[in-house]
Amino acid sequence: MKKYDEIKTKVVIKPLPKDSYSLSESFNLYLRNHLGHFTGFVPYYFYEAMALAVRDRIMTNWYDTWDRHNKPQTRKAYYMSLEFLIGRALGNHLLNMDIEQPTRDTLLEFSMTLEDVISEEPDAGLGNGGLGRLAACFMDSCASLDLPVLGYGIRYEYGMFKQHIENGHQIEEPDHWLRDGNPWEIPRPEFEQSIQFGGYTEKYHDNEGVERVRWIDSNDVVAIPHDMPISGYRNNTVNTLRLWKATASEVFSLDDFNAGSYSDAVEAKNDAEHISMVLYPNDASESGKVLRLKQQYFLASASLQDVIRIWERTNGYQYDDFARYNVFQLNDTHPTIAVAELMRILIDIKKLDWKQAWAITTQTMAYTNHTLLPEALESWPTTMMKSLLPRLMEIIYQINENFMHEVALKWPGDNDRLARMSIIEEGNGKRVRMAYLAIVGSFSINGVADLHSKLLCTGLFKDFYELWPEKFNNKTNGVTPRRWLAHANPLLRDFITENIGSDWVADLSHIKQLQQAMHKNEAAFMRGWTDIKQQNKQRLANMVKNECGVEFNTDALFDVQVKRVHEYKRQLLNILHVIHLYVKIKKGDTSNWTPRCVLIGGKAAPGYHMAKLIIKLVNNVAEIVNEDPDVGDRLKVAFLKNYNVSRMEVICPGTDLSEQISTAGKEASGTGNMKFMMNGAITIGTYDGANIEILEAVGEDNFFLFGLKADEVEGMRQNYLPQGFIDNDSELADVMHLLESGHFNLFEPHLFDDVIAALKSPHDPWLTLADFRSYVDCQMRVVDFFQNREAWTRASIANTSNSGFFSTDRTMQQYNADIWKL
Ligand code: KUQ
């Protein structure tokens, strides 16, 4: 048989033309020959045929990039993440490959618009929120910068649940996004990997008489890679996102099958396939479920084995310079079991000794922390870890023992410190602290915004920072300007390009030039800017009308808070302000009133009672406010259901005011804040996460800052008396009174008792009432400012023109310069 490489050099695949004639021909072939649709009009098939035609035009670049990035002596990074919140792909590829116009032309033959076809694509919702979307933006930037970075994730059959609202309550519905297939993915069963679970370990002596450990009697699951192309912006680079699907292994099911138990065999198959069945819908909180640990190990093991397979193909069976050419970035602690798994592979399978294996591991692993919230810090019971992953548990104990020696050497006799820093948390029910395993096993540890990284060093990871200060660094998050400006806001994209050329799409630092461009013809520039904002507000208003049945007038201030619903993000503070405005209107205190449309959207984790109650409260307040004839156009409130990536593409261009109002010190970074800023919204926000850096970039005249700072929050906690704030602020008292009177739950008595109790509790961790006055005053400054439309427009332009830093291109360049060194 000929070797693949020999054949490959003979069969040269020519890139397909990208003109509308050729595209139309491909499209028709797919629609009619491949998919078999001659009659009827099912818009989904138009999407599918178009996606396949476009994919054909990605393919040669994909091969070329793969070859180029897999040459020997090419250092590569692997972004390991349990989440990639990609959203739709078609529009993104069209932009990157510059074939939007031929695509429009082709569809015109069928009297279809591109927008109709694009909206047929289901969102790939393989993530919860910011952390998953960040991974997707990183992939986009790495391709656009031609960095050899491979993404590794799980091909969940069901992504983030779909959110419905019934009688104001959140109802979750499964998101079977793969039901009609996925035209973008290429399954590669030839590169399957086997993953072990359960069983036990035993010692044995190998041929050379060396004592070794083997892991036996395990139930094995097979991981099958499915590759998704990640195209770079007009640079012919196509990177790979490799997603693993779990299936039963032949051996696994055949045993039972041969024993005559067909149904047991099928059950085993089901068990295996459950591993990649569904994304855990908890954002910033731990699930603690065995299946979640299985997912984590499944991803880590399959990906590491895959990297080693590729390594051996080009480098043979030597691992001396493995660490020179490979680096793993762990997206939070979720894939951190990779630290122990790489040790296992190198020691048990590749027969390296502990020292060599540890050197390789600690030179290739890098860990990103995304949260300080204690409820989100992962720790697994050692009992669970031992029964599911017996060999990994042994290795973790060994890592910890060595580490404890190191600590004892540096701080002799400091037993408290030993206990504090131990990877194994003692006490009844021992647990493995995954963040500590990640720190001990990595050469780099980073936070995701300046403040967050500082708080890691002074708080959560203080002991570790004292031991290894050189490991700690900051990498402020970003968002990709391709999706979040060029694709989501075509009107502004064309306007910007008319004014400063198109270089900004590939290098957002150029966006600064908007300021000078504006001065050339200020009046026209400002008019253009406001016109576009109005049109984008209309597009958003249409969506709100369709989805919520609420009429948003585009002359009003569009005030938007969309993000996961969580107490620390303080959607409640927003609602208290809405109630305050309602009280004012009812009192007739409406002279010089600025009409405001408040939009709130976001999903609550299905088991998070308080978050779900907040959604219900928003819906009830919206109903009362919107139906009150005294209120009219002065105030509108809508809860937008099923907030996701493609909805954000409509929301952020149409927003005037971006709500980023978390309790200071709690939001690690935030990335929605950056999407809004890029699209010319002005932020009302606390001194938290990346808000701080946004404020510094744009200047305090163009940002509405309010609330306690992180250190003030900690100070206030000692002696927090919410009742005092109510007693000293008649407007807050009015709001609380109305809420407590049951005005928003007239036929559902006591419905909001838990919300009220949480707000009034001296132990409220989010200190919502402490920031009420500052927030309401700040909102008054907002409306004053909005009345002067010219000033507002200037601030809006300032926000977009100063958003250059918040491109993930910059973030990725910093990861590369400081950590990856590709
Ligand atoms: C935790 N932690 C468990 C799924 C997600 C998690 C399961 O990451 C964003 C930040 C944002 C932070 C979010 C995060 N998600 C932390 C999570 O809350 O502030 O912008 C990306 O860094």
Summarize the structure.
The protein is an alpha/beta fold and 822 residues long.
Could you characterize the architecture of this molecule?
The chain is α/β, with parallel strands linked by helices and 822 residues long. The chain has 35 helices and 25 strands. The strands form six sheets. Strands 1, 4, 7, 8, 11, 12, 13, 14, 18 and 19 form a ten-stranded mixed sheet that branches. A six-stranded parallel sheet has the order 22-21-20-23-24-25, sandwiched between helices. A hairpin with a 5-residue loop joins strand 9 (200-205) and strand 10 (211-216). The radius of gyration is 28 Å and the shape is globular. The two termini are 36 Å apart. The model has no long low-confidence stretch (mean pLDDT 96). The site of ligand KUQ has 19 residues, from helix 7.
Present the secondary structure layout.
Elements: H1 4-10, H2 20-34, H3 43-69, E1 76-80, E2 84-87, H4 90-97, H5 100-108, H6 114-118, E3 124-126, H7 130-144, E4 149-154, E5 162-166, E6 169-173, E7 186-187, E8 193-197, E9 200-205, E10 211-216, E11 219-231, E12 238-248, H8 250-258, H9 262-274, H10 290-315, H11 322-325, E13 326-331, H12 338-349, H13 354-364, E14 365-368, E15 379-381, H14 382-388, H15 390-410, H16 415-421, E16 424-425, E17 431-433, H17 434-441, E18 444-447, H18 450-460, H19 462-467, E19 472-474, H20 481-487, H21 490-500, H22 514-520, H23 522-548, E20 557-562, H24 571-586, E21 596-601, H25 609-627, E22 635-640, H26 645-651, E23 657-660, H27 672-678, E24 682-685, H28 691-698, E25 704-705, H29 710-717, H30 722-727, H31 730-740, H32 753-760, H33 772-787, H34 789-801, H35 808-820
Parallel strand pairs: 1-4, 1-13, 4-12, 13-14, 14-18, 18-19, 20-21, 20-23, 21-22, 23-24, 24-25
Antiparallel strand pairs: 2-3, 5-6, 7-11, 8-11, 9-10, 11-12, 15-17, 16-17
Bound molecules: ligand KUQ.
